[in-house]
Amino acid sequence: MSLGPAPTRLRQIALVAKDIERAKQLITHVLGTEVVFEDPAVGQWGLKNFLVPIGGDFIEVVSPFKEGTTAGRLLERRGDGGYMIIMQTEDAKKRREHIEAKGLSRVIFEHDLGDSVCIQYHPRGIKGGIMPELDSHVPGPKNPTPIQSRFSPWHACGSDVERYTTSMRRTQHLTLEGCVLRLQPGDLGHEAAAREWEGIFGVARIRDLLAFTNARLGFIPGKKGQSEGLVAITIGVKGKSEYDAILKRARDAGLWTDGGIDMCGVRWHLALTGLGASQGKL
Description:
Blueprint: E1 9-16, H1 20-31, E2 47-54, E3 57-64, H2 70-78, E4 81-88, H3 92-102, E5 107-112, E6 116-121, E7 131-137, H4 161-170, E8 174-182, H5 190-201, E9 205-206, E10 209-211, E11 216-220, E12 229-238, H6 240-252, E13 256-257, E14 260-263, E15 266-273
Parallel strand pairs: 1-3, 4-7, 8-11, 12-15
Antiparallel strand pairs: 1-4, 2-3, 5-6, 6-7, 8-12, 9-10, 10-11, 13-14, 14-15
């Protein structure tokens, strides 16, 4: 029996960077956010990381400190850029059963904390050149609507829920609006890519866009000489003064070019929100 789409949130985008301290300084300064967690557990894979809140969602940056890591090999091939798309669904275990039964992808890591589950899939054969992860939280008295509640708990931020929730609320003027993945050279099927992700991970689709509950993910055709993977991230900014402040910091840092911010190997677009309609681009 097939399993149709389910409400799915784009909860976290992970980047990989050679110089993690430089990435931390740039992202926190330019976007006006803060480091909310550094996970010592990723050291088992030879990585360091940090997470920053974008309102109720997150940007993570990882960096290898050992040889032979997946992140390190990605850096060697592409340089700084995208690493993972981390989605939140209602029941990640149920979706995994569907994926494995249909032979749609292969699980490479799974971690069950009781009230949450994290499942990573091998990126081979999945369009977009990025590692997908599909997680879920079990609804409970303190977290009745994990996907719908903007500031709901998130397992990747550790156990101090009060601390990181406070950080999320401090950045409530920011929203994760969407991102764009480039297909591999020669692949022009951006709508087929969206259809594939819909079929595997259960994210609803509107033509060639994945329609998360909070954001959109699009694909662009592959181009000779350019690697597949994450091309752009769009951040919503509520309020003209906050928007202008980010623009000024980006310009002062020499990162603003041709209407966008070039940072950590990714093009960052800003969308002015809270004025009736977003004014920006995916």
